[in-house]
Amino acid sequence: MSQQREVNDASTGVSMERYWQEAMRSVTRLQQTQMEGLREAARLCAACLARGGVIHTYGTGHSRAFAMELAGRAGGLVPVNRLDLEDLALRAGWSPEVVMHPDIERDLQAGKELLGCYHIEPEDLFLICSNSGGNAAIVEVAQQVKQRGHTLLAVTSLAHTHQSPARHPSGKKLYELADLVIDNQAPFGDALLALPDGSTACAISSVTGALIAQMLTAGIIALLLEQGLEAPVYLSANVPGGMERNNRLVQYYADRIRPV
Questions:
Q1: Is Isomerase one of the keywords UniProt gives this record (predicted)?
Q2: Domains along the chain?
Q3: Using N-to-C axis directions, what is the helix angle for 35-50 and 16-33, rounded to 10°?
């Protein structure tokens, strides 16, 4: 059975080893091409936190994983608030059936109402992730962020967004609205490995997205410490004193961040 699997892998170019190789190429390109942008993004985020601001992070579909990587997790920064379309049901009276529908990320009205679910201050910064960067709910939030005068950082696939349609009435995409863009190095379609029928499998954007999120976290913390400031970082609730420390830090930001 294992020998047959190896034959199938060889004939289609699909294997764990092949994915590892292609994924590492994407990671290497990320390091070679995006470090300047990552350093600037870390500088902007650290400046936001130093002046008492909060970083609001947002993604739809699988890009929600990027926002979750930054917000409310052990080792992450406390003053990061995750925006989520599900909050339209929890805080804006939307029907759960509508909010949970797969097409919600293409709903213009969802984008229009989302920011109203949160406590946002003028000094806050926004970090939005979308692989395609073209869906209406993403672009509408980005447009509102800029209209309100906030700094907007974007994580997207430039290869994909340049080959996909804009679904916002303005014709704009996420990268066109952002003050700074980080390219996650995902190809058009996101997946890395070619199948015999011409389709592709095994996505990369979540891998490079998590790496970008943690590199940003490290860069922000380093800059805060250089300035002699506290790095407000969550400890795991499963280590002694973790919950107590976390509760103290969370209380400082009150209703400006999502409860963990």
A1: yes
A2: 34-251 (3.40.50.10490)
A3: 70
